[in-house]
Amino acid sequence: MTVGRALAPLLGVALVLGGCAPSSGSATGDDQRLTVLAAASLRQVFDDLAAEFEASRPGVEVIVSYAGSADLADQVLAGAPADLLATADERTMARVEEGGDVAGPVVFATNTLTVVTPPDDPAGVASFADLARDDVDVVVCAPEVPCGAATDEVAQAAGVTIHRVSEEPSVTDVLAKITAGEADAGLVYVTDAALAGDGLRVVATPEAEAAVNRYPVAVLTRAGQPDLARDWVELVTSEAGRDVLAGAGFGLP
């Protein structure tokens, strides 16, 4: 079965405002549909796991919507129907847990940031400290999303004031600007940098160890498919799930 993919902006409009199902090509009324909201940095891993999940459960369709964790948390708190939430940090998940929408989050992966530049490195960025230079245009995640909070934490620990020219809603947006050559440098997760391959240049960033993001996943309290949702958590935390995560560059808790 083909894995459904719904863009977060469409999810927000269709679910929160209109109360409709995600526009992903799914059959309306399918009682074997698992809806997962996941941090943008999990795309590769969750796409792979969704395919495995469907293959082992004939008749089940997995729909994953990717976006910045803060946006996903807002959707859940606004009542968007879904079964699972996976965020890129515990702080964002805690906000949803305090709202009573999830219970018992489980940490399943870790991630850290790294400095990246376009392949030709137009500004000559050699270290994290270079991000403070006035001639280096840096794009980062907005402070309200996990990668942005981690950026601020690393910068503070290193005593570096980043010359930021843009703050983006998700790590994939930062990555897009760097690969398009719209900035001299950026901060993204090491997993996203690895996925981009030759599309960017990675700068060693030992300072990033000051902020390790821990990724939790939780079943929503109003999940329409709680059993399938628990099966998903079991898969993500299983040996097979850990192998997929490690292969994508994630650390394991």
Automatic annotation (TrEMBL):
Record-listed molybdate binding positions: 41, 69, 171, 189
The keyword Metal-binding belongs to this UniProt entry's keyword annotation: yes
Metal-binding in keyword set: yes
BP terms from Gene Ontology: molybdate ion transport
Organism from which the protein derives: Antribacter soli
Name under which the protein is recorded: Molybdate ABC transporter substrate-binding protein
Record gene name: modA
Keywords recorded for this protein, A-Z: Metal-binding, Molybdenum, Signal
Alphabetical list of PROSITE patterns matching this protein: PROKAR_LIPOPROTEIN (PS51257)
UniProt xrefs under PANTHER family: MOLYBDATE-BINDING PERIPLASMIC PROTEIN (PTHR30632), SULFATE-BINDING PROTEIN (PTHR30632:SF0)
Family (UniProt): Belongs to the bacterial solute-binding protein ModA family.
Record-level Gene Ontology MF annotations: metal ion binding; molybdate ion binding
Pfam family, one: SBP_bac_11
